[in-house]
UniProtKB/TrEMBL annotation:
InterPro entries: AAA+_ATPase (IPR003593), ABC_transporter-like_ATP-bd (IPR003439), ABC_transporter-like_CS (IPR017871), ABC_transpr_LolD-like (IPR015854), MacB-like_ATP-bd (IPR017911), P-loop_NTPase (IPR027417). This is ABC transporter related protein. One of its GO terms (cellular component) is plasma membrane. Gene3D superfamilies: P-loop containing nucleotide triphosphate hydrolases. PROSITE patterns: ABC_TRANSPORTER_1, ABC_TRANSPORTER_2. Keywords: ATP-binding, Nucleotide-binding, Transport. The keyword Transport applies. Residues 2-219 form the ABC transporter domain.
Amino acid sequence: MIELIDVYKVYKVGLHEVTALRGINLKIEDGEFVIVMGPSGSGKSTLLYLMGCLDKPTRGEVLIDGLNTSQLNDKQLTELRRDKIGFIFQQYYLIPTLTALENVELPMVFKGIPKVERVKRAKELLSLVGLGDKLNRKPNELSGGEQQRVAIARALANGPSILLCDEPTGNLDTKSGRVVMDIIKRLNDERGVTVVLATHDPSLKVYADRVITIRDGAIC
């Protein structure tokens, strides 16, 4: 499903170079739930961005379903992200002027799905995350945990086979964080969605099939 082969990522900061990832070799199987552990600045987010085709490696290869992402053009990368990959971030990135229903509809708009089908699917996804009674609420009318659940529903809008989660419970209290993690785990168990979740919280290890530790840009 996901494979990284000798991956390096180097950023230029002024006249200096900062190496965020150093020779990463990693394979994640279809349907796995993998947690990437590490402190702030260890390279967790960079790793997820490369897996999600939001960035390209400086050196090495990132393969998604056998496709070498470095060989894809911008249109092909956009289609790969749209159709196969869902993203959940620490920040919810909901559009404040749209309702929960409209926020979940949005990825389907970009895919050209008809309105009736979009609404039906968005309602089903919001019910899945326990927000079927809050379809018309705007983000400022929802709690942090509820906003994150809307973000999960939005990430699932186009039926991705991969879910990439970057500190998804980082802004939540313990109870809300547990609700969010239970939803993500259920998607993995019941729908076979491949999950890669970056966190510095060791209590989340119980959800994973496998835990990978990263430090200073390298897998320990």
